[in-house]
Amino acid sequence: MRYMDEASTMQHNSFGSRLRWWRKRCGLSQLDLAGAAGTSQRHVSFLESSRTQPSREMVLCLAAALDVPLRQQNALLLAAGFAPIWRQRDLAAPELATVNHALDHILTQQEPFPALVVDRFWNLLRANAGAQRLTTFLTGPAPDPAPAGAVNLAEWLLSPDGLRPLLVNWQDVAIHFLRGVQADAIADGTPDTADLLQRLLDYPGIPALSHVPTLEAAQPPVLAMHFRKGETSLHLFTTIATLGTPQDVTVQEMRIECFFPVDADTSQVFHDWAANASR
Q1: Where are the domains of the chain?
Q2: How many CA atoms lie within 13 A of 14 on its CB side?
């Protein structure tokens, strides 16, 4: 696939090639980038052709002008011969204690409705009780012992063995989700993210990214996920939040997804589940 080829090529290229890739991705000319970074077009040209090597400060200045994510800023620094400056801590690290408290607060405030924390590959990092109750309802109790490795929500959503049979409007939801992963792959510029997109597209029955859902006369403001199991029907939409002003790779790449009921019946189901669990 094109995104995988581009990402793989950039992964092994020089600083100049990487800089050119990011500049073109942003749709900027050398003159545009030079103006944003406070340097000259000639200097940008020399950097891209590897006639000149950048200072560490220039690498960071150019990366900031191009809004390059922290993980890729580290890659640019390495390609230019400098050590990375942005750390990637485990979520359990003591330095991230305040972040963990914030995540716990958000997940608790979302009760009784589901909320999840995922990484850049949609691996599940944390879930509140509302999300656990929804999962138990849809797929049954978690196996004991739990399977090794992280649960990948992207694959769980799109796999024929996952949530697909329980989503009435699976195809429409899949298209929106896949386009989000595609945007991540383009913005991220790494083989790992492009590989995730490719794995998802390789599942049987995946609609083409160019697919346009059937348009009704009146479109709702958001596309709801319509789960149905037995006589129970649930309509949920989601919001996705990130942590502001990150200075850590892990923190920047985390996403918090909160689910909200579209109708009163769905809301009542979640309130009833929570009430029964507290008895």
Answers
A1: 2-79, 94-277
A2: 11
Q: Which of 63, 53, 69, 71 is nearest to 19 (CA)?
A: 63
Full-prediction pTM beyond 0.90? no
Which residue do the tokens 């050398």 mark?
A: 30
2-79 shares its CATH topology with 94-277: no
- Encode 209-233: b = buried (16+ Cβ within 10 Å), e = exposed: eeeeeeeeeeeeeeebbbbeeeeee
Of 258, 236, 237, which is closest to residue 105 (Cα–Cα)? 258
| Angle (nearest 5°) at CA 26 between 38 and 189 | 115
List Cα–Cα distances, 207 to 18, 44, 151, 197, 235, in angstroms: 32, 41, 23, 13, 22
- For β-strands 124-127 and 115-118, DSSP reports them as antiparallel
CATH of span 2-79: 1.10.260.40
Which pLDDT score is estimated for 146? 62
Amino acid at 172: D
Residue 219: predicted pLDDT: 75
184 vs 196: CA distance, rounded Å: 10
208 pLDDT exceeds 50?
Answer: yes
What DSSP designation does 115 have? E
Tokens of 70: 């922290």
pLDDT digits (tens, 9 = 90+) for 178-207: 999 998 888 777 888 899 999 999 999 998
Which CATH number describes the domain made up of 94-277? 3.30.450.180
31 vs 221: which has the higher pLDDT: 31
pLDDT tens-place string over residues 4-28: 455 544 545 799 999 999 999 999 9
